[in-house]
Amino acid sequence: MMQAAIRFLTIRLKTVVRTLIPKMAITMTTRQPKLTREAARDWPLFSEDDVPSEMGVLSIQVQRRLSESIDLAATGASALLATALAPVLEAQRCRLWLVALGRPVQRSSRLAAYRAGRDALWGTWEAAGAHLPGGSRSEMEMANSPEVLRFAGCIELPSGNDLQIALEVTRRENALVLGQLDGHDGLAWISFLASLNPLPADSVGLLRATVRQLGSEYFTVRSFGWFDDVDVGVEVFAQTNVLNNLEFALNAAKSKDAGLG
């Protein structure tokens, strides 16, 4: 199945390594996020999917204050996750990637197709004002239709601060963060995206397709909070063994932050 899917791809792969200086430092607040754990099968989002029984969801939720922006409130949750993962990131026992799909562009629209081909994925998003994380960037044209031009990409995240920036991207674009604990194989992101046939049209479709095939050492993360939501934060999807380790690390980070507050 994977080999058949890969045939849909054109051979156009570009990898760039960039280290960005963050536009602003993202720090934790003294407000304590709330941790909630559920079975993925209990979510209406996955009611029609073949989700493994051991797949769960760990939510890191922050209640937004009056007149506070969603962006600012959501950083409380993403900062807690970054703090919890910091020890394993530093010990190189955890790897993180931002995986993304661009919007399809009709090739019949010559100007739009020219711009899409020139800027690919990351250039298009940066031109639209997106703040992207640092790290090794790759992108590739996904040619699953002769009429449509579409790009996908991956950024390996080198630090917790880059994770926070990446999670903001997942709230706005068709993207999510994939993580691997205690693994050394890395992420074959091209094969992974190629296996999602047809390609998901939006971030919900991408999440559903990803959760269906998460391996035992992987997890996926997205940020949530839109419009006038009061409860915002981060959701982690993984099997039981990974969620147990993450929940332990998150509670330890919460206790440490409470002691400093």
Short account of what is shown:
This protein is α+β, with helices and mostly antiparallel strands and 261 residues long. The chain is 35% helix and 29% strand.
Please give a structural write-up.
With 261 residues, this protein is an alpha+beta fold. The chain has one domain (2-260). The chain is built from 8 helices and 11 strands. The chain has helices at 2-6, 70-90, 110-119, 122-127, 160-172, 189-194, 203-212, 240-260; strands spanning 9-18, 34-39, 55-63, 94-101, 105-106, 135-142, 148-149, 151-157, 175-181, 218-224, 231-239. The strands form 2 sheets. The protein has a 9-stranded antiparallel beta sheet, with helices on both faces. It has a two-stranded antiparallel ribbon with strand order 5-7. Helix 2 crosses helix 5 (160-172) and helix 2 (70-90) packs across helix 8. It is globular.
- Total helices: the number is 8
Biggest sheet layout:
9 strands, antiparallel
Question: Termini, distance in Å?
Answer: 52 Å
Q: In sequence order, what are the helices and strands, one letter per element?
A: HEEEHEEHHEEEHEHHEEH
Mean pLDDT: 84
Percent of residues in beta strands?
25-35%
How many separate domains? 1
Per DSSP E runs of 2 or more residues, the count of β-strands stands at 11
Q: What overall geometry do the principal axes of the alpha carbons give?
A: globular
Low-confidence runs: 1-12, 19-29
Radius of gyration: 18 Å
Q: Give the class from helix and strand content and strand pairing.
A: alpha+beta
Strand order of the largest sheet: 1-6-8-4-9-10-11-3-2
Measured as a percent range, the helix fraction is 25-40%
